[in-house]
């Protein structure tokens, strides 16, 4: 069943506590380098304010490990949001405590307030598993969440990037607000619609493109997708764990030796299910990975002393061909060390192929993180169907995992 959204409830005169994802990138002077995450939260924020709700926003930023860290303050996000809304955004110097409570009480309908970084309190990230085994931890997490929950009449979750976590603000707070409206925002609604519909009703061919550093991170996704997709294209460092298992020489390329057997098992499973797995047949290799390193193409085996850092030209062509005829595409993970040009050629080519397929009518989903960065860097954001705001969350969704922080929210 679909979840209730903020559009389904009346917020007039209510205090609305909204978990958003303002985990924005900052430069060394704490200037926001991309306000994308703030912009994406605007539809939900504007709806609440226009509906006469008194809006209390909460988010994390970075990994401050439970301590105040001025470099990870959300103050710049409050300033940017205020500019985007054209109205004052009250910023509180903490996310809990008597002063925050008083400000929340005084907040009127149509006014907006942003709480300081939730992760300045270690209680925010205490895992429920740890809390179950340790009464003190459980109490600390509950007390922290209760202070947040007490401020509001309505709970809204619009932070897809953390939807796979059981953080206090994501799970404990809505649990404690049982009996009050607990709904999703428009950003999460869109994510669930795209990811859900894609998995349930894919037009074929359905192609998954997986890259990045580690196979171990993506085993669950591969296992779940084998029965759903027609092809899995594997690039990036994770390809070399599969290739080594197939008896190829991979030189000094990254490889997770503990996962070679699992990789081969997945390839067998895929073959049985009729799911084609495409691995690179040639590679861009270097002796030492660094900017400006001399590089060359290795076809098939990679000589000892060399390391694969990107796809080779044949792999780029094969991958692209197998993408441009697709009707449904999911992509997560770069095809090489894309941070160091020219080892970004494979990733760029794949981004262009995904855009071309989309132009021909395919539905394409970019699963956050590095692949989203690559698409954005090439100015192709508008040429793909959907860029997910949660890399880890979209992968876990495709693994078929349930998000308990969303499960407890109200159904339509
Ligand atoms: P992940 O976080 O698992 O998506 O991995 C992303 C990282 O994988 C990026 O920092 C890339 O530089 C890295 N990566 C991709 N391909 C390779 C490769 N062939 N060798 C080393 N690192 C790679």
Given the C-alpha coordinates, what overall shape results? elongated
Which small molecules are bound? adenosine monophosphate
Structural class based on helices, strands and sheet pairing: alpha/beta
Largest sheet: 6 strands, parallel
Q: What fraction of residues sit in β-strands?
A: 5-15%
The helix content is: 25-40%
CATH topology of the largest domain: Rossmann fold
Number of helices: 15
State the CATH architecture of the largest domain: 3-Layer(aba) Sandwich
Overall number of strands? 15
Q: CA-to-CA gap between the ends?
A: 7 Å
Topology order in helix (H) and strand (E) letters: EHEHEHEHHEHEHEHEHHEEEEHEHEHEHH
Mean pLDDT: 96
* Rounded Rg: 23 Å
Please, could you describe this protein's structure?
- With 412 residues, the chain is of the alpha/beta class.
- It has two domains: 6-188, Phosphoglycerate kinase, N-terminal domain (Rossmann fold); 196-399, 3-Layer(aba) Sandwich (Rossmann fold).
- The chain is built from 15 helices and 15 strands.
- It has helices at 36-50, 75-85, 98-106, 128-133, 135-149, 168-176, 186-200, 219-225, 239-245, 260-273, 313-324, 345-359, 369-377, 391-398, 404-407; strands at residues 15-19, 54-58, 89-91, 112-114, 154-157, 182-184, 206-210, 231-234, 276-278, 282-286, 295-299, 307-311, 328-332, 363-366, 386-387.
- The strands form three sheets. It has a six-stranded parallel sheet with strand order 3-4-2-1-5-6, sandwiched between helices. Strands 9-8-7-13-14-15 form a six-stranded parallel sheet, sandwiched between helices.
- Helix 8 (219-225) links the parallel strand 7 (206-210) and strand 8 (231-234).
- Helix 1 packs across helix 2 and helix 9 (239-245) packs across helix 10.
- The N and C termini lie close together (7 Å).
- Bound molecules: adenosine monophosphate.
- Adenosine monophosphate (AMP) binds at residues 212-214, 217, 236-237, 254, 308-309, 333-334, 336-337, 339, 369-370.
């Amino acid at each position: 069943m679909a979840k209730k959204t903020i559009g389904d409830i009346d917020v007039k005169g209510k205090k609305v506590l909204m978990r958003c994802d303002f985990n924005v990138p900052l430069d060394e002077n704490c200037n926001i380098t991309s306000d994308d995450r703030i912009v994406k939260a605007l539809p939900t924020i504007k709806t609440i304010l226009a509906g006469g709700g008194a809006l209390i926003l909460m988010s994390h930023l970075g990994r401050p490990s439970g301590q105040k860290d001025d470099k990870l303050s959300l103050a710049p996000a409050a300033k940017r949001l205020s500019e985007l809304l054209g109205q004052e955004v009250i910023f509180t110097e903490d996310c809990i405590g008597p002063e925050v409570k008083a400000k929340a009480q005084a907040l009127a309908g149509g006014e907006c307030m942003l709480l300081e970084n939730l992760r300045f309190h270690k209680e925010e990230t205490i895992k429920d598993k740890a809390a179950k085994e340790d009464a003190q931890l459980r109490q600390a997490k509950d007390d922290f969440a209760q202070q947040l929950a007490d401020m509001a009449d309505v709970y809204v979750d619009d932070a897809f990037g953390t939807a796979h976590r059981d953080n206090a603000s994501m799970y404990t707070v809505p649990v404690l607000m049982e009996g009050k409206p607990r709904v999703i925002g428009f950003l999460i609604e869109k994510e669930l619609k795209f990811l859900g519909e894609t998995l349930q009703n894919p037009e074929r061919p359905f192609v998954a493109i997986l890259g990045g550093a580690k196979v171990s991170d993506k085993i669950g996704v591969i296992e779940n997708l084998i029965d759903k997709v027609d092809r899995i294209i594997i690039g990036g460092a994770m390809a070399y764990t599969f290739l080594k298992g197939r008896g190829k020489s991979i030189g000094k390329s990254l490889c997770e030796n503990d996962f070679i057997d699992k990789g081969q098992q997945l390839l067998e499973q895929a073959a049985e299910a009729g799911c084609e797995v495409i691995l690179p047949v040639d590679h861009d290799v270097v002796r030492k990975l660094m900017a400006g390193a001399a590089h060359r193409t290795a076809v098939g085996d990679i000589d000892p002393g060399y390391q694969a850092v990107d796809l080779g030209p044949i792999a780029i062509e094969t991958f692209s061909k197998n993408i441009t005829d697709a009707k449904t595409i999911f992509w997560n993970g770069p095809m090489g060390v894309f941070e160091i040009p020219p080892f970004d050629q494979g990733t760029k080519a794949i981004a262009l192929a995904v855009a071309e397929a989309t132009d021909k009518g395919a539905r394409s989903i970019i699963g956050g993180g590095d692949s989203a960065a690559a698409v954005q860097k090439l100015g192709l954001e508008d040429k793909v169907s959907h860029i997910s705001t949660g890399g880890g969350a979209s992968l876990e969704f495709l693994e078929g995992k349930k998000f308990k922080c969303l499960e407890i929210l109200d159904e339509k």
